Amino acid sequence: MKKTLILCIFFIFSLNRLAAQESWGGGVDGEQLHFGFTFQYVASEFKILKLAEWQGPFNDQYGPMINSPMKSLSSPVTPGFGLGFVSDFRLGDNANLRFTPAMVFADRIVNYEYMDPAFNIQRKVQATLMDLPLGIKLKSDRRRNFRAYMIAGAKYSVDITSKKKTDDIALSPEAKYLKNNKNIAWYEAGVGFDLYFEFFKMSPEIKFAQSMKSVLRDDDRLENPYTSPIDKLFLRNFQFSLYFE
């Protein structure tokens, strides 16, 4: 009898514990509008579309003559990071509208390799972007303290260092190569998981984004051997985020 009573008490306690866990997450899913913050790891690269005559050679009006044909033109993935906020508007049980502005610090690199290695060079584009993404989050039904989702949308970015770099007439010629547009429109898509804890929800998310148009400015294009081989220059980001709501 005593053992049966103990088992009943344990069973009731377990049911109460499970019922309590169903409401974990601070109740954010039931709110029409809630907020949070995010940390981001960003891997950036250029997608380079080359001209038919990309191998050159091309004259360099700013430096020594580059009289060697180009062998390779590539953009390695470079790391960056971002910090931002979350504004989430509930559209229904399985859909949310999300606005997640963030400040992103990410550099991009282009490597120029020539038949003559003496001319090999690397060009870096430094950027501090104010990202303004707007997306639709489509969620699965919640299973205990887990939920999967997909997200897709668009974002608008402003390079807040671009004007300073463009207007600084004291910049060396090398620093003016590969200037990018200040304003960038993107499309993006990703997947993630909502993990519910007792007082908050954490969401790891992986997202891919690419600029809708070429980001390359055409300043001194014909006289610049580092832009002359390029037809279009798109920007791509692979982003891992942790959202706390």
Number of helices: 2
Approximate helicity band: 10-25%
Radius of gyration of CA atoms, rounded to a whole number: 25 Å
Shape, per Cα inertia axes: elongated
What is the chain-wise order of helices and strands? HEEEEEEEEEHEEE
CATH architecture annotation: Beta Barrel
CATH class, anyone?
Answer: Mainly Beta
- Backbone structural class: mainly beta
Question: Which runs of at least 5 residues are low in confidence (pLDDT < 50)?
Answer: 1-20, 163-175
Percentage beta strand? over 45%
Please give the largest β-sheet: 9 strands, antiparallel
Protein model, in words:
The chain is mainly beta. The chain has a single domain (25-244), classed as Porin (Beta Barrel). Helix content is 11%, strand content 51%. It has 2 helices and 12 strands, in the order αβββββββββαβββ. It has helices spanning 2-22, 162-167, and strands at residues 33-50, 70-74, 78-92, 95-99, 102-106, 108-114, 121-125, 128-139, 146-159, 183-196, 201-211, 230-244. Strands 1, 3, 4, 5, 8, 9, 10, 11 and 12 form a 9-stranded antiparallel β-sheet that branches. It is elongated, with a radius of gyration of 25 Å. It starts with a helix and ends with a strand.
Summarize the structure.
This protein has 245 residues and is mainly beta. The protein has helices at 2-22, 162-167; strands at residues 33-50, 70-74, 78-92, 95-99, 102-106, 108-114, 121-125, 128-139, 146-159, 183-196, 201-211, 230-244.
